[in-house]
Structure to design on (335 residues):
């Protein structure tokens, strides 16, 4: 069975005539026993980078987008970028594309040409498709002549895909081969698919940014501080790791400012996981200020974190239950 995917780059507004045309095209294609799948980019904008994987089973695609003020819109551009970065180019080469552009302002033909040129740059087969300027969406959607023209376009698209119609060569393919160079690392389709999943995983991206921040802070310390400072700061983190006594389901975060070093030591705890680094954490549960000398006494077990707070040597704000837990999670006196 033939499979057609529709990628809609609009905002889903009820007055968007693009939706009406997509529905008409879908009705005709389904009558011709075509399996049609629609992807509304605005509904799944966090996962647009993985959508090129859905091209695998498609014989043809419809790229549908309205022109509200200028161009093809951000969602559609983001999808095409993802196709360039993560799409299976060998599969795209065999995939027919039908551009659909409905405009409420000037620029429907330019947007149509943008979609065609983009697909050709990707190596795919671009058809003429359809575009129109719509001043009154009700008048357009109730006109039987327009409905008939849309149905004819759907049938032409079906025939082109079904017959694997050969198109005349385009100079765009030559430009792609001789001028455009994808500077990305050569990846297999499977590796590209996996990479696109990582990119769409917000947790993974945040973790990568945090790891980079840790490395940045470490190298800044190595370049800007004395050897003694770096060693001392490493000792703090090392001692925290050694003294860590994890508790199931306990999560907390501390931002400890070492006043005389003008640095903030961030401690993040999630069950059995401990992360320590120098940087910023505005949403830490406990903010504490103390000297490096006092912190040295704490990690050596000479004084507890809470006792230093009660004596006024250490100032803190935030969740005081979490503050008290510091001496339970880190048992320095036992070392």
């Amino acid at each position: 069975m033939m499979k057609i995917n529709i990628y809609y780059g609009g905002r889903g507004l009820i007055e968007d005539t693009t939706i009406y045309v997509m529905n008409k095209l879908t009705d005709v294609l389904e009558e011709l026993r075509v399996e049609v799948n629609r992807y509304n980019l605005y509904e799944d904008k966090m996962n647009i980078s993985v959508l090129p994987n859905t091209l695998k089973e498609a014989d043809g695609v419809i790229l549908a987008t309205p022109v509200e003020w200028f161009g093809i819109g951000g969602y559609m551009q983001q999808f095409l970028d993802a196709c360039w970065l993560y799409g299976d180019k060998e599969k795209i080469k065999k995939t027919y594309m039908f551009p659909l552009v409905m405009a409420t302002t000037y620029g429907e033909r330019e947007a149509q040409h943008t979609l065609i040129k983009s697909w050709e740059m990707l190596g795919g087969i671009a058809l003429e498709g359809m575009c129109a300027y719509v001043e009154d969406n009700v008048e357009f959607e109730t006109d039987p002549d327009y409905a008939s023209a849309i149905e004819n376009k759907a049938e032409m698209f079906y025939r082109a895909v079904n017959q694997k119609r050969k198109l005349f060569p385009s100079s765009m393919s030559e430009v792609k081969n001789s001028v455009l160079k994808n500077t990305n690392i050569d990846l297999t389709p499977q590796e590209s698919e996996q990479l696109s999943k990582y990119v769409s995983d917000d947790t993974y991206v945040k973790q990568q940014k945090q790891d980079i921040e840790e490395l940045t802070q470490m190298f800044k310390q190595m370049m800007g501080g004395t050897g003694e400072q770096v060693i001392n700061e490493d000792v703090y983190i090392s001692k925290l790791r050694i003294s860590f006594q994890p508790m199931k389901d306990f999560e907390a975060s501390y931002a400890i400012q070492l006043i005389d070093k003008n640095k903030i030591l961030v401690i993040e705890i999630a069950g059995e996981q401990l992360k320590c680094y120098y940087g910023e954490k505005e949403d830490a549960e406990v903010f504490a200020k103390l000297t490096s000398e006092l912190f040295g006494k704490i990690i050596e077990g000479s004084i507890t974190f809470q006792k230093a707070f009660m004596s006024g040597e250490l100032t803190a704000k935030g969740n005081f239950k979490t503050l008290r837990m510091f001496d339970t999670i880190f048992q320095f006196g036992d070392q």
